[in-house]
Design brief:
Elements: E1 2-8, E2 12-19, E3 28-33, H1 35-48, E4 53-57, H2 64-74, E5 79-82, H3 83-86, H4 93-98, E6 101-104, H5 106-109, E7 116-120, H6 125-136, E8 143-148, H7 160-175, E9 182-183, H8 193-201, E10 208-212, H9 213-221, H10 225-228, E11 232-238, E12 242-249, E13 252-260, H11 266-278, H12 283-288, E14 293-296, E15 306-309, H13 315-318, E16 323-325, H14 335-347, H15 349-359
Parallel strand pairs: 1-8, 4-5, 4-7, 5-6, 8-10, 11-15, 15-16
Antiparallel strand pairs: 1-2, 2-3, 9-10, 11-12, 12-13, 13-14
Helix pairs in contact: 1-2, 9-14, 14-15
């Protein structure tokens, strides 16, 4: 079978086309610019051309897109957006309109003339498979798995930083294990608007699995042979935008913290990790520091080894952390994609043996 696994981050989208008929190393692996980076460049091009901007499509990750839109508006240029696209920038579309974006219907979008049209979407499987086809031949995967970081649609008046962490905390308290932190399309909570938009963008009649990027990375890190020998560990993913630490013991999640990578200089990163593992780090402390939060379900008497992943993992050395750089199958940037493949094996028991054999691991709950 073939699994198309796409881990979508702030800087890159990391793609694994796992073919269980061959070794992992011979499967197609791609590191591509993230959808947010692609769309941001398209918006910047509209600004360069001094053209009006028309945003359509669905809700997707913001980040670089929001910055590009702000620059476009500051240049005195107009921007139009359909409601689903506008929700990319704020859960309250009125705030987006107040910044100068004109909200229009899908029918009205067809009547906007002379604008630079940009379609928003996180998942574009057609583009990825088309890029693979000249080298691999026509490809139709048997299943797709996608990881995104979803802040969720917070209730009015509630910070999306707080809302996301409360959602993660509740999910972990309910499920307690990394491999259970995933969804089939029908299970995605209504508040997770980015994941739901991925579902809407999935236009192939294929099984789809969704997962948070942090959980996918932590699960994938465990497939590094040296990491697997340490069932008690801190799995720390230093992404381009977010940093998540999972304290794990024999597959159970003992605690979690989430911060913003840009707010973690070396000294603070070391302090956060040390205080988290000692049980002293509080949710309020991380929140006041500009991060999302921290919660500790159980403490451990022994300090675990630290396993580091993510495009900013070199920060660990600068912080003086003795951390092992996980690189499952020799491909660190695909850690989350390997986690997605494993998640399918856990979620579909009838696939577990085949996927596990391809990955060289045993997948069973």
């Amino acid at each position: 079978m073939r699994l198309l696994c796409i881990d979508i981050g702030a800087g890159t989208q990391d793609v694994l086309l796992l073919d269980t008929a061959q070794t992992v190393e011979n499967s197609v692996q791609l590191i591509l610019p993230s959808p947010t980076q692609i769309v941001a460049r398209q918006i910047t091009e509209a600004t360069r051309l001094s053209k009006p901007l028309l945003l359509t499509g669905v809700t997707m990750g913001g980040g670089a897109i929001s910055s590009a839109l702000k620059r476009h508006l500051r240049a005195g240029l107009s921007a139009f957006a359909t409601l689903p696209a506008a929700l990319t920038f704020d859960d309250d579309p009125r705030k987006t309109a107040d910044r100068g974006v004109k909200l229009i219907s899908e029918d009205e979008a067809g009547g906007v003339r002379g604008a630079h049209k940009v379609t928003l979407r996180d998942l574009d499987a057609d583009a990825i498979l088309s890029a693979v086809e000249p080298f691999y031949g026509p490809v139709e995967p048997d299943a797709v798995a996608v990881a995104v970081l979803d802040h969720g649609e917070a209730p009015r008046g509630m910070s999306n930083r707080l809302f996301r962490f409360e959602y993660l905390k509740g999910l972990v308290e309910e499920r307690r294990r990394l491999e259970r932190l995933c969804y089939l399309p029908s299970e995605v909570p209504p508040s997770l608007t980015r994941m739901l938009s991925v579902v809407r963008s999935h236009d192939r009649p294929l099984p789809l699995l969704l997962m948070d990027t942090g959980a996918a990375a932590a699960l994938g890190a465990g497939m590094d042979g040296r990491v697997a020998k340490h069932p008690h560990r801190l799995s720390l993913n230093l992404g381009n935008a977010h940093s998540l630490g999972f304290h794990l013991q024999k597959g159970n999640i003992l605690g979690l913290f989430e911060h913003h990578t840009g707010l973690l200089p070396s000294a603070r990163l070391r302090q956060v990790v040390d205080r988290f593992l000692s049980g002293e780090l509080t949710n309020r402390e991380v929140w006041d520091d500009g991060g999302h939060g921290c919660f500790i379900l159980e403490t451990a008497t022994k300090r675990p080894p630290v396993v580091i992943t993510g495009p900013n993992r070199t920060r660990a050395a600068g912080a003086g952390l003795r951390a092992y750089p996980a690189a499952p199958y020799g491909a660190m940037m695909l850690t989350g994609s390997f986690g997605l493949a494993a998640a399918w094996g856990y979620r579909r028991p009838e696939w577990a043996e085949e996927i596990g054999r391809a990955l060289g691991v045993r997948l069973s709950l």
